[in-house]
């Protein structure tokens, strides 16, 4: 594997394997090529079906022969739903080389041309995020059109997410187009009133009740610590404040209020979804976006309300992600995770409401709860913040990204790095390489945490499906399987396999396009749309054949197939199986 110029590095005694730095791909690698994955000696084992409460679970190990499928079935050729990025990655790196951690890019003026978007898609963007705080309806509409075009015409599979503005107290006007410096001891006037022209030392806040309940002596903190002011006088609805900790005031800076070292929780008076948010949500529904990220969620009811609203308005299933970005949301974490389709750890605003040193442990806690409850989790904000300005990340940023990957977050998100920074593609490649590297390390060192297996649903058929997925993941690791295939209509089986974070990639075959786009946020899952028939054996044979004729799978590869047939009008039994197939 090592070529001339490669650097062989041995880590003294602690780590058994030799690591080789591959300059071309920029990664340290251990010998993990497909051919080197442990050869399997599979015998024709056939375990009979065991009946459990009316459901049949079959486990079989066999040898797949391609002989039965005719090679000229044209409709099958066209049905290979691989996206172009996975296909290239698979050809270049093999099954184990496929990246597991998903990547979300915030789209902004720096990356909104079709050409820029294509480069991000090619660079591994799984989800494009539109932050409704910024820009116009027309701009967002144009973006949706461009992403759809790339998917339809260029074979990408990029999901769309809109992110609501939400209710939050922030600066509207601070008297300058960009940053203003607040000097120690300077006195500033905080008001909700709009003012014309320049009025030095005046800050306009967006919410008229911003000073309600605030007392002389309280503190106003900008952006979680950029600058701090002490309230010296209340003037009607306004405040006169003195700068006690000098710093930079940014446009739209977030304001938080503190008393005796504790946050004065103020967001409770603001609705989670404003009239503008509802209008943005209607826009998202009419454009058929895949995810709606809901800012400043404070309880499960808000999530349930939005989910109900969507189900009455949209025939398509749209995933609601709850953004955890307030103290109140942390108090109600479990119920919010349970009510939502996924979570975004919005560290930007979270860092305004809780002390910064608590962010790492809170992040670990949230990722843990999400995995227990089988909800995808996105780690967001400031991952590579310095790259908004510089073409290279800090070592600390790379360490932060690696930590999120080590925690098995489903996805990582870029904000300003892609939206306004000139190095968006480079930032994306840093995420890509850093995640691949940490995934490899976790796998080799077998750092997999033992997952406390919550039963996700109380009903028996669901528990059986859970256990099949858990066992499938364990089998895949123990047998050194190359790839897991799962047939899944709503994505549930694929998500439960993913939740186990198995070593091989998970190819999820579904007949629902919305399921495919939702699975784009799931760790380790490559979702594909295929025609699924009730004949599960036929589905399996067809998909293996498709991959084989496209050169993506070869003789000797081993695939673990998980299938799940739900009763239809013609078949009354639930038939679930795990099969191990060696391609021959
Ligand atoms: N659609 C957009 N149009 C213009 N600027 C944007 C857009 N989306 C994001 N940005 C810019 O990128 C920065 C980072 O994005 P994000 O983290 O989503 O927003 P914010 O910082 O407002 O929470 C924003 O502060 C804003 O300057
Ligand atoms: C992702 C976040 O939300 P937004 O960018 O919408 O403020 C955050 O606060 O970290
Ligand atoms: K937002
Ligand atoms: Mg936020």
Automatic annotation (TrEMBL):
Top enzyme class: transferase
Pfam entry (one):
PK_C
**Which residue ranges does the record assign to the Pyruvate kinase barrel domain?**
99-427
Keyword ATP-binding set for record: yes
Keyword annotations of the record: ATP-binding, Glycolysis, Kinase, Magnesium, Metal-binding, Nucleotide-binding, Pyruvate, Transferase
The pathway where this protein functions is: Carbohydrate degradation; glycolysis; pyruvate from D-glyceraldehyde 3-phosphate: step 5/5
What cofactor requirement does the entry state? Answer: Mg(2+); K(+)
Q: Where is the Pyruvate kinase C-terminal domain?
A: 466-565
Which EC number(s) does the record attach to this protein? 2.7.1.40
Q: What SUPFAM superfamilies has UniProt attached to this entry?
A: Phosphoenolpyruvate/pyruvate domain (SSF51621), PK beta-barrel domain-like (SSF50800), PK C-terminal domain-like (SSF52935)
One GO cellular component this record assigns the protein to is: chloroplast stroma
Check the record and name the PROSITE patterns matching this protein. Answer: PYRUVATE_KINASE
Q: Specify the domain of life of the species encoding this protein.
A: Eukaryota
Catalytic activity reported = pyruvate + ATP = phosphoenolpyruvate + ADP + H(+)
Keyword Cell membrane in annotation: no
Q: Which GO terms describe its molecular function?
A: ATP binding; kinase activity; magnesium ion binding; potassium ion binding; pyruvate kinase activity
* Family to which the UniProt record says this protein belongs: Belongs to the pyruvate kinase family.
Q: What is this protein called?
A: Pyruvate kinase
Organism ancestry: Eukaryota, Viridiplantae, Streptophyta, Embryophyta, Tracheophyta
């Amino acid at each position: 594997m090592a070529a001339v110029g490669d650097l062989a590095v041995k880590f003294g005694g602690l780590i058994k394997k030799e690591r080789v730095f591959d300059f071309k791909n920029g990664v340290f690698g251990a010998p993990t090529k497909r051919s080197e994955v442990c050869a399997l000696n599979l015998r024709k084992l056939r375990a009979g079906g065991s009946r459990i409460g009316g459901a049949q679970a079959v486990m079989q190990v066999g040898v797949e022969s391609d002989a039965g499928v005719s090679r000229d079935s044209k409709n099958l050729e066209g049905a290979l739903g691989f996206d172009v990025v996975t296909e290239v990655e698979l050809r270049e790196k093999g099954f184990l080389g496929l990246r597991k951690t998903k990547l979300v890019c915030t789209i902004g003026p720096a990356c909104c041309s079709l050409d820029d978007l294509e480069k991000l898609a090619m660079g591994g963007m799984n989800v494009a995020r539109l932050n409704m705080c910024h820009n116009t309806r027309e701009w967002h509409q144009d973006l949706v059109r461009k992403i759809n075009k790339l998917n339809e015409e260029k074979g990408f599979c990029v999901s769309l997410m809109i992110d609501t503005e939400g209710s939050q107290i922030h600066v509207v006007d601070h008297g300058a187009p960009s940053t203003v410096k607040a000097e120690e001891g300077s006195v500033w006037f905080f008001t909700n009133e709009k003012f014309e022209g320049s009025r030095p030392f005046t800050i306009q806040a967006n919410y008229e009740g911003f000073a309600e309940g605030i007392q002389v002596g309280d503190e106003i903190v900008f952006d979680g610590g950029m600058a701090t002011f002490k309230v010296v006088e209340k003037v009607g609805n306004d405040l006169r404040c003195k700068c006690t900790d000098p710093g930079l005031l940014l446009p739209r800076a977030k304001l938080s209020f503190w008393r005796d070292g504790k946050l004065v929780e103020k967001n409770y008076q603001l609705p989670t979804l404003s009239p503008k948010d509802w209008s943005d949500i209607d826009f998202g529904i009419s454009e058929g976006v895949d995810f709606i990220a809901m800012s400043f969620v404070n309880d499960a009811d808000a999530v349930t309300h939005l989910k109900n609203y969507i189900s009455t308005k949209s025939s398509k299933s749209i995933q609601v992600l709850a953004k955890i970005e307030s103290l109140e949301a942390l108090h109600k974490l479990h119920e919010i995770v349970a009510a939502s389709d996924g979570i975004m750890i919005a560290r930007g605003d979270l860092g305004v409401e809780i002390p910064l040193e608590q962010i790492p442990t809170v992040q670990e806690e949230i990722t843990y709860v999400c995995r227990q409850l089988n909800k995808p989790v996105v780690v967001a904000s400031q991952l590579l913040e310095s790259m908004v300005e510089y073409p290279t990340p800090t070592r600390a940023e790379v360490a932060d990204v690696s930590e999120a990957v080590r925690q098995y977050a489903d996805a990582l998100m870029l904000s300003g790095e892609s939206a306004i920074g000139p190095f968006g593609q480079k930032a994306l490649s840093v995420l890509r390489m850093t995640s691949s590297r940490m995934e490899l390390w976790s796998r080799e060192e077998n750092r997999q945490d033992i997952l406390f297996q919550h039963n996700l649903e109380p009903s028996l058929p669901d528990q059986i499906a859970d256990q099949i997925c858990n066992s499938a993941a364990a089998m895949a690791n123990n047998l050194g399987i190359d790839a897991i295939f799962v047939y899944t209509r709503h994505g549930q089986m694929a998500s439960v396999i993913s939740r186990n974070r198995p070593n091989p990639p998970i190819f999820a075959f579904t007949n629902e396009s919305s399921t495919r786009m939702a699975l784009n946020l799931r760790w380790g899952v490559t979702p594909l749309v295929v025609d699924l028939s009730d004949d599960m054996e036929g589905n399996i044979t067809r998909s293996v054949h498709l991959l084989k004729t496209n050169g993506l799978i070869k003789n000797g590869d081993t695939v673990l197939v998980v299938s799940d047939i739900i009763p239809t009008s013609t078949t009354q039994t639930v038939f679930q199986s795990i099969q191990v197939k060696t391609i021959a």
